[in-house]
Design brief:
By secondary structure, the protein is mainly α. The protein folds into three domains: 62 residues, lambda repressor-like DNA-binding domains (434 Repressor (Amino-terminal Domain)); 79 residues; 31 residues. It is built from ten helices and no strands. Helix 2 crosses helix 3 and helix 6 runs antiparallel to helix 7. The chain is elongated, with a radius of gyration of 22 Å. InterPro entries: Cro/C1-type_HTH, Lambda_DNA-bd_dom_sf.
Length: 195
């Protein structure tokens, strides 16, 4: 596989950092790093932008890596599907164990909560792995995720995709704060109901 080394060679010949290249073709620096380390492959739009920027044909850029790219993307897509099913299964099982343990099987609060939290932890581990795959493949919006899961090309040039790629850290912090607030509220509610 030569695509990663080709991208790195052309980038360094033009005196561009990974950040500079990422900005010019509308992806993250981590995405460029993944490409150069042969962890992931650019999608069709990114390949076209790279070929224009580097003033080479797409054929010269990829040099026979097309099949390897398709296979790697397909493997990531299949892995993401399996992780999504695992996440959903463990999440539903955690909820069933929690409510079933309390209301139907007569378990105490502590063992019920421990069992449910262990299952929920597996669910969250799958969610983290899905998020890593999304970052590796530079999938940000729901529309991009749907296209990726179907094996279709991803349109990163639309305004929603570009907006979603701006201020990702701030948006992530806001989501984290909201999740913590909701978790605290649910914990307080459970404590008052069952405590």
């Amino acid at each position: 596989m030569e695509l990663g080394s080709q991208i790195k060679r052309h980038r360094t010949e033009r005196g561009l950092s990974q950040d500079d290249l990422a900005t010019k073709i509308y992806v993250s620096r981590q995405t460029v790093s993944s490409w150069e380390n042969d962890k992931t492959y650019p999608d069709v739009e990114s390949l076209l932008l790279l070929s224009v920027l580097f003033d080479v044909t797409v054929d010269e850029l990829i040099k026979g890596d097309v099949e390897a790219m398709k296979e790697a993307i397909e493997q990531d897509r299949k892995k993401m599907d399996k992780l999504a099913w695992a996440m959903m299964g463990f999440g539903i099982t955690a909820l069933a164990m929690f409510f079933g343990g309390l209301f139907f099987w007569g378990w105490d609060m502590v063992p019920t909560t421990i069992i449910a939290l262990l299952l929920w932890a597996v669910c969250m581990a799958a969610a983290i792995m899905i998020d890593r795959l999304k970052k590796q493949n530079d999938v940000v919006t729901y529309r991009e995720l749907v296209a990726f899961s179907k094996g279709e090309s991803i349109d990163r040039d639309n305004p929603k995709s570009q907006r979603a790629r701006q201020n990702r850290l701030v948006k992530g912090c806001i989501k984290m704060a909201a999740a913590l607030a909701i978790g605290a509220a649910l914990g307080l509610l459970a404590y008052r109901l069952f405590g």
